[in-house]
Amino acid sequence: MRRPLRDARRHGRSCLLLALAYLSGRAGLVLVGLVLLAYGVLALAPFRWAPPRRIENAATADAAGIRFPAAGLAHSREAPPWLDRAATLDRLRLELRFRTYSPRQDGPARIFTISRDLHLANLTLGQEGSDLVLRLRRPGSTPNGKPAYPLAGVAGDARWHEVEIVIVPGRLRVAVDGRPALDTPLPERALAGWNRSDLVALGGELNGLRRWRGEVARAVVEVDGESVDYASPGALVLPETFWSFANRPRWLLPEDIDHTSIEDWVANFACFVLLGFLLGAIGGRRGSWPRALMICALASFVVEVAQGFFSRHPDSIDWALNTLGGATGAGIARWTIGHALEGPERVPTPDDA
Asked: Are residues 40 and 76 in the same domain?
């Protein structure tokens, strides 16, 4: 009984040595190339070329309000002082008077937003065709407030419209042109997760996208009895030019971490375990764990930078997870080679493949 078991172990070890011999040579290099190609395709799809560029700000402002006849942006200089109170008290009132220049705007095109970029926003009121879309960051939503609350038909004409949004503990109410349009419950402490460093912006997102064309005559935010009209002269900055780029890079900062993306974290780690293993196996006994780690880190860095030019989201968290996955895979390869080569059989080299 012991002899068949010993023979099976010897056969299995021989197969492992043969596989490592193939991976240590040209076959391993080919597989590394295929894995890198597949990762690049997945990371950059659907290949929409959108490099960063400077845009002339067409927004104008006077006592009557702010106009956005073409690409324009108006934003606060810093995070508003009422933002922390709104998140603490779970109370906010927004009164907006506006008119659109076209019912054919989507994205949704940002009319008013309290945000950092497309993916991190406390509150957004935008236009999607003839409808308005209200996004509110709350427990159970994405970091930019999805699922949204639709307000059908409000932007279907060029007339002036008034929208009032009232948030109180446990309730969200919206009125359009003086008539109730939405009355829905909110979770307890709905605004507690708001980012206190977000800015107020009109006419588009802070990264220059989701631009809206129209006029805003009044944009009053009221919190705890104090109010600010962001459509009044001097309330917002109208830069001469602004940058338009697909997505702001996310860094390894607490406010940038999206805790709803656990599946994405696992995928970024796992996809580089294979790459790290293949790189760690190349060269057989002469292979190098540090070399495999550096190649994984460099490959991930190049892809993350390229995502900034292809309408994707450069993310240092993805880079860190890719690198950690590559290090793990390379470590497994070096450990496997070291243990598989214990014994009398010859050490595999690239020449064996």
From this structure: no
